[in-house]
Specification:
Two copies of one chain form a homodimer.
Chain A (H helix, E strand, L loop, with lengths): L9 H14 L8 E2 L1 H8 L3 H13 L3 E4 L2 E4 L4 H25 L2 H17 L5 H18 L3 H12 L2 H9 L1 H19 L3 H23 L2
Antiparallel strand pairs in A: 1-3, 2-3
Helix pairs in contact in A: 1-3, 4-6, 4-7, 4-9, 4-10, 5-6, 5-9, 6-7, 6-8, 9-10
Chain A binds a DNA duplex (30 and 30 nucleotides) through helix 3.
DNA sequence: TGTAGTATAATTGTATACATTCATACAAAG
DNA sequence: CTTTGTATGAATGTATACAATTATACTACA
């Protein structure tokens, strides 16, 4: 087997690093950075940093101002809107995946579901989180639609900080895993409408849980 | 009244220019450009050009390769997927706009609808196109949701080349104008579910028209 | 004649130098 | 004491210089 060693540019690495740091909450909304500070922190020149910043600005998670880089992050209102949007189109991804998925892809999806089921009773939040996230990302990919993938991916990533909380709750975590199983079975049966229905319910449930939590 | 003279950076201008040129079909899919060629064409250095290219790459309408900039554009398959996605979430934008729109914003939307109605019988395709596009963009904005705006905007822009064809057809153009009127009236009445229903039908109709045209 | 190796030139990737902008503070005038 | 003008410096915006990569063509060898 040939391993492709695609060398990732610094600009790309910086983008991934900053995006994660912002969406995970390491940099807080309202905080102001400077390019010079990032040069010191990341050890690369301003050029790749700026290329990354432009992309982050396009995603509306930072704003480049004359005084520095303003961290915007994801607000509670943003989060609600994002889950409302995902409720409507992530079902479409499940629908298309049910139509287009190959046997090989199906096995990859099955393994992800089963690993999540394996970690849930062990309360291994980190690994549950990885599998939970991977399940959704695989469905985006297996939908076979680049525009749908491109649309869902940034929305998915922006829920990072809040998804973590769901995964740490034992009750929600168990339900979530069951919902993934139901979606998987529908996709495996190539029952597109059912896969869509289950996925829409799954996102709606996640939305309800996060909102309930937000209103303490 | 204070006029804000926000000076737009070269990077931003280059992005807008290249995006339009690619999505309008001036650069054809498969074509390969180089940064040096763009330096000559646009009269700016590589730095702002590269910042723009990174954003275009993120939108998947170009690909930066070691041999140059590969133009991807928007395929027929992409277009179908995009309209399927828009069918599902542009209704949400209309729904939210019906809830959140102010009287002042309502007048701006009304003027857009009425100007479109004014130009349709005159067969002024350019101006019809501008108003048609503006109608949708205003609703994105008046929805009051930044994530929804950010999600819909790139999808809307990618239909540019194909929307033009719809506008030039007298029958579809007249229907489209009527559909905008119906959506507007529902929003004006703050009837969110109705606004959503009409918008979904409107996008579905546009999709049907474009697909019928594509299958000649 | 075919194939593997290698030189090369064109292109992107990165770093740095220079230009411009703009918030801030401070001083002067009313 | 308020307000307006202006100097200043820190930051982004832009241009250019340098490094690394890679497809291509050519050469040498089997």
């Amino acid at each position: 087997m040939i391993i492709e060693h695609k060398s990732i540019s610094l600009a790309e690495q910086v983008f991934d690093r900053l995006e994660t740091d912002i969406l995970s909450g390491k940099y807080q909304p309202g905080e102001v950075l400077t390019e010079l500070k990032l040069v010191g922190d990341l050890g690369v020149s301003r050029t790749p940093i700026r290329e990354a910043l432009r992309r982050l600005e396009q995603e509306h998670i930072i704003e480049m101002t004359p005084r520095g880089i303003l961290i915007l992050g994801v607000s509670q209102k943003d989060l609600e809107d994002i889950l409302e949007i995902r409720t409507r189109i992530e079902g479409l991804a499940a629908y298309m995946a049910a139509q287009n998925i190959t046997d090989e892809q199906l096995e990859e999806l099955r393994e992800t579901v089963e690993l999540q089921e394996f970690y849930v009773p062990k309360h291994d939040a980190d690994r549950i989180n990885v599998m939970d996230s991977k399940f959704h990302l695989l469905i985006y990919r297996f939908s076979g639609s680049v525009p749908l993938y491109d649309t869902l991916m940034p929305l998915h990533k922006k829920v990072l900080k809040y998804r973590r909380a769901s995964v740490e709750n034992e009750v929600r975590s168990a339900y979530s895993s069951q919902e993934h199983r139901a979606i998987f079975e529908a996709i495996a049966a190539h029952d597109a409408p059912l896969a869509e229905k289950y996925m829409m319910e799954h996102i709606a449930n996640a939305k309800d849980y996060i909102q309930k939590k937000g209103n303490h």
